[in-house]
Each structure stands twice: as structure tokens, then as C-alpha cells.
Write a structure and sequence with these properties.
- This protein is mainly α.
- It has a domain at 23-74.
- Helices cover 46% and strands 0% of the residues.
- The chain has helices at residues 23-40, 51-60, 63-75.
Length: 90
């Protein structure tokens, strides 16, 4: 069994987004969706469903971004709103 960075894709209220992808990236997303569907046993409705979880995972695991976010939050002072928490692990 392969160890993919994404796990089961949560079903959530759909939001329409218009996005142009390079053909090679779209083919890679299609291939990733096929592998993920085999690994999880749950079909993926389309490669577009992978984009949000991939971006969430990317942001949640980017240490430099987390550091910059913490520093920006502490620089904002005591009355500032706390940073938005990252997504739950997948």
C-alpha cells in the first residue's frame, strides 16, 4: 500500500470555483485521484475535489508559513485575533 499525503476526502458543501489548469497538472490530478480511490476504497468525484485538500495539507505542513503566521500574530499585539487554525490532519 502506498503512503499518499492525502487521505479520505471529506464531503462538504460544494462551492463553485473557476480555475484553469495546465494539461499536465490535470492529468496528474486524474492519476492521483485514481490511486487515492484505490487506496481508500472511495471513488473521487473528480480531480478538482483534490485541490482543496492538497492546498490545506500544503499550508498545514509548511513550517516556514506557520512560523511567519505565529510571528505576525505575536507582532499584532494582545488585542489581535488569533490566527485561524489549520485543517485537521488527513
Amino acid at each position: 500500500m502506498t503512503k499518499l499525503k492525502l487521505g479520505l476526502i471529506a464531503h462538504d458543501k460544494p462551492v463553485k470555483v473557476a480555475l484553469l489548469l495546465p494539461g499536465a497538472l490535470h492529468r496528474d490530478l486524474v492519476a492521483y485521484a485514481e490511486v487515492l480511490a484505490r487506496e481508500t476504497g472511495h471513488p473521487i468525484e473528480g480531480p478538482v475535489k483534490l485541490i482543496v485538500p492538497m492546498l490545506e495539507r500544503f499550508i498545514a505542513t509548511d513550517r516556514e508559513f506557520a512560523k511567519a503566521r505565529r510571528e505576525a500574530g505575536s507582532a499584532a499585539g494582545p488585542g489581535a485575533s488569533p490566527p485561524t487554525p489549520g485543517p485537521s490532519s488527513m
